[in-house]
Amino acid sequence: MSQPCRKIDALFSHCSGAYNKVCMDVTAAEIKAFCIGSGAALVGIADLSLFQTEWPAIPGDLLIPYSRAVSVALRLDDAVMDSLDDLPTPAYAEHYRTVNAYLDRLTMRIVAWISDRGYQAKAVPASKIEDTENLLGAVSHKAIARMAGIGWQGKSLLIVSPEYGPRIRLATVLTDMPLSPDGPMEQRCGSCTECTDACPAAAIRNVLSKGRYERREEALYFSRCAERTRANSQLPGIGARICGVCVKVCPHGKSGPSDRK
Ligand code: B12
Ligand code: SF4
Ligand code: SF4
User: Is the distance from the beta carbon of residue 199 to the nearest atom of ligand 2 less than 6 Å?
Assistant: First the structure.
């Protein structure tokens, strides 16, 4: 009978069984290569120290064991996004679910990769709403992605990457692995008003922020977007709080590779 593959035993065979206390030196480049090889379109590392003091997580002690976050992005399908109108389509709802499931598998693999190297890691679900009254996730993937240099936070409050614009979905792995962090990039919205003009709920205020918005209400008439996405979730074949118009219309990422590095 064949033996199961015990990668971890092979890695730490010199440690006489004490491998859970021995941590390997891993560079940010190595973990990024693993993420890209596992299907991520973009990956960056965020320093969590600012979040420890300035940002509520759910539960409140979630971030305490961790110093870094790995932010990963999957790219959305242009054909699905380009076919969106003022209302979401069943194809977009299906794509939303598929990408979320892929993200959760990807972060599970990253957690295993980190644990195999002797560090702690925890995946934050792609799209779970932990506080349904205030509409909050466990941590904000957008805030982490911004600090990890994935993109800037646009006037739509979405993370806009130079490569794919806001046509990305995000997830986060929290870790104590001492990886060199990336940093935020300058916003490139300029005088663009595409998302403000197109929003079917007139929810985007067209306010530019040089650093970060202190509250989401600075960028959005938040309740308008919340109500619009709630109403959309009741439509036949949708079943999720989605809309996607501000994702579709952003000129960044819209016209193929011209903006890509
Ligand atoms: C709840 C939720 C909603 C709610 C509330 C949205 C909101 N703006 O908060 C509703 C249902 C309305 C919604 C709508 C949408 N959502 Co939504 N949603 C979430 C969810 C689950 C939690 C968001 C959250 O907790 N927000 C809390 C607020 C306060 O944080 P924030 O929006 O990031 O904004 C603050 C921080 O970023 C902070 N910040 C920025 N930089 C820094 C740096 C530091 C150091 C600190 C401390 C803070 C900080 O500044 C902002 C203002 O305070 C996330 C998944 C997740 N766990 O993050 C997806 C998520 C934000 N949604 C997403 C998307 C795409 C959408 C929609 C387009 C719907 C759709 N899929 O078709 C719309 C877009 C609405 C909009 N223009 O923002 C994507 C965004 C992807 C991207 N490219 O940015 C996410 C990340 C899901 C994912 N896995 O990719 N969503
Ligand atoms: S998700 Fe729709 S309603 Fe909300 S801000 Fe974007 S375009 Fe407007
Ligand atoms: S549509 Fe224009 S203003 Fe809105 S996020 Fe994209 S670049 Fe910024």
Answer: yes
Q: 231 alpha carbon to ligand 1 midpoint, in Å?
A: 18
Ligand 3 close to Cβ of residue 252 (< 6 A): yes
Whole-structure pTM value: 0.93
Nearest CA residue ID for atom 6, ligand 2: 246
Q: Is 225 in the pocket of ligand 2 (CB under 6 A)?
A: yes
CA distance 53 to 33: 30
Give per-residue pLDDT as tens, 165-180. Answer: 999 999 999 999 999 9
| 122 within domain boundaries | yes
**Ramachandran angles phi, psi of 96, nearest 5°:** -55, -45
Nearest ligand atom owner, CA of 201: 2
Residue 224 burial by Cβ neighbours in a 10 Å radius (0-12, 13-18, 19+):
middle
Residue 9 has pLDDT above 50, yes or no: no
pLDDT, tens digit, 9 for 90 and up, residues 29-72: 999 999 999 999 999 999 999 898 888 899 999 999 999 999 99
CA distance 237 to 235: 6
Q: What's the domain range around 224?
A: 25-255
Tell me, yes or no, whether 110 lies in a domain.
yes
Is the distance from the beta carbon of residue 157 to the nearest atom of ligand 2 less than 6 Å?
no
Pairing, β 68-75 against β 121-124: unpaired
Position 9 in a domain: no
For atom 7 of ligand 3, the residue with the nearest CA is: 189
Q: Is residue 2 part of a domain?
A: no
Ligand 1: atom nearest CA of 92 is 72
If one counts the domains in the chain, the total is: 1
